[in-house]
Write a structure and sequence with these properties.
about 450 residues, alpha+beta, 6-stranded antiparallel sheet, 4-stranded antiparallel sheet, globular
Length: about 450
């Protein structure tokens, strides 16, 4: 019996050591993710705590957290088995922000100035309902079957699609939502926000205010080899800088999103592990660094905040869109863009039309070509903050497709050769969700297509 208790005691000790070394350090990230997710989903899209916990936070380990919503003061607290409480606050105009204990919630803050298009035009150039249009070259039976197949049957959680919209020749030819979601539901785009962030450099370039081919304006890099890194390299994730992006563990990306106060600084102090313009490495830190570079182009914080809306989001009628900020007031350009499915589709249409929005050129036509040129060493899979199909990741989908892509299978896919934009929002990504089947099936429903 004594031997049994000794063995049991050793096993308990080993378990405690494992929990302390492997699990306890993760609790900050678990409760941080949970608090931020609940605050955003509840205050931006009016989702209930139960809906968020069952639909957004039912992720391994994240579902350990318990969450409380304070509707009066508009914040959420989360903890894991009573440990590591984290808090996310909601501020109108800025969205939800995960804060630390030193953050002064009483401090005044700036918000972006917003304008809403009111031109009595139907979607996509106005906010009126789209007019019904029937195209003779579309097999609607096949199209609707493909869309239906992208969604779970009642009681299933296999595909987890929340919405799909298909825009052909500026007209909605298919649109479907899962239970609990509709055309007014804001949905997090995660890394699709990277494509938004890149677009601002195209806008500044058109305005003659920025040259992406010059060395990136980072003071910390001026006296070493990193001085050779251009903004073009950063846009292509081809800087050669060290970065680890793995959401299943504590890494550079998770520490940045759920611990750092100023996310624009996370990539700055990383060393080179490769050569600039010759070493592709996907990095959310790089995109937030780009957000920081954007901020430095303006004399005031207010101008930086306004620019993201007046020059793009509100300009093209993405009035539902919110890009959330970090504790330092920077837009989290890597990950925290929210919008309705229809508004995400407007972003795709802007690129389909090479920057022209109802007669106004938002960025030069060449910019749409630029973002879709493969980055060296990305095997034809990545352009400038957009993903590509040049390398045939989706084998039955046209090679000219390029797309904004986000965690858990968010996608805005642009098909220049087919005058087509497809948006899918959900909670499963490739290969668990069959994007090749969805995209190729929709393209295949166009009887007179070029593919």
């Amino acid at each position: 019996m004594k031997k049994f208790f000794k063995i049991f005691a050793v096993l308990v000790l080993l378990l405690l050591v494992y929990l302390r070394i492997e699990i306890y350090p993760q609790l900050d990230l678990i409760s941080g993710f949970s608090a931020k997710s609940v605050a955003s989903g509840h205050f931006l899209d009016n989702r209930s705590l139960e809906t968020i916990q069952q639909g957004d936070n039912d992720i391994d380990k994240i579902d350990w957290a318990t969450n409380e919503i304070n509707d009066t003061e508009r914040f959420v607290t989360s903890k894991v088995y009573g440990f590591k409480e984290r808090k996310a606050i909601y501020r109108e105009g800025l969205g939800a922000t995960l804060i630390n204990d030193d953050f002064d919630v009483s401090k005044p803050y700036l918000v972006p100035k917003r304008t809403k298009i009111n031109n009595n035009l139907p979607f996509p150039y106005g906010n009126l309902e789209p007019k019904d249009t029937v195209f003779s070259n579309i097999d609607y039976t096949k199209l609707n079957a493909v869309i239906e197949n992208a969604f779970d049957k009642k009681g299933e959680k296999n595909k987890r699609t929340r919405s799909v919209i298909v825009i052909y020749k500026n007209k909605i030819i298919a649109e479907k939502y899962a239970d609990g979601f509709n055309k007014n539901s804001r949905i997090l785009g995660w890394s699709m926000t990277k494509s938004l962030t890149a677009t601002y450099f195209g806008i500044l370039q058109k305005q003659g205010k920025f040259d992406i081919m010059k060395p990136a304006p980072i003071a910390e890099w001026k006296s070493d080899e990193r001085s050779k890194i251009t903004t073009n390299d950063l846009l292509h994730m081809n800087s050669g800088l060290e970065w680890e992006e793995n959401y299943s563990k504590i890494c550079d990306a998770t520490k940045m999103l759920f611990i750092e106060e100023d996310m624009t600084e996370s990539q700055i102090n990383k060393p080179l592990v490769g050569k600039p313009n010759n070493t592709w490495n996907y990095s959310s830190g790089t995109t937030n660094l780009l957000s920081g570079i954007l901020r430095k182009q303006f004399k005031t914080h207010q101008e930086y905040l306004d620019f993201w809306y007046t020059n793009l989001l509100d300009k093209i009628g993405m009035n539902s869109a919110i890009v959330e900020t970090d504790m330092a007031g920077n837009f989290v350009g890597s990950s925290y863009g929210w919008a309705t499915t229809r508004d995400w589709a407007k972003f795709g249409l802007l690129y389909l039309h090479k920057g022209n929005w109802n007669g106004e050129q938002i960025f030069d036509e060449s910019w749409a070509d630029y973002v879709a040129i493969p980055t060296d060493t990305s095997y034809g899979n990545y352009g400038a903050q957009f993903w590509l199909n040049v390398g045939k990741k989706f084998p039955n989908v046209p090679e000219d497709m390029f797309y904004a892509s986000g965690y858990q299978g968010q996608m805005v896919a642009i098909f220049p050769s087919h005058d087509l934009v497809i948006v899918r929002m959900g909670l499963k990504e490739d290969p668990e969700f069959d994007f090749n089947g969805l995209l190729s099936g929709i393209v295949g429903s166009l009887k007179k297509n070029l593919y």
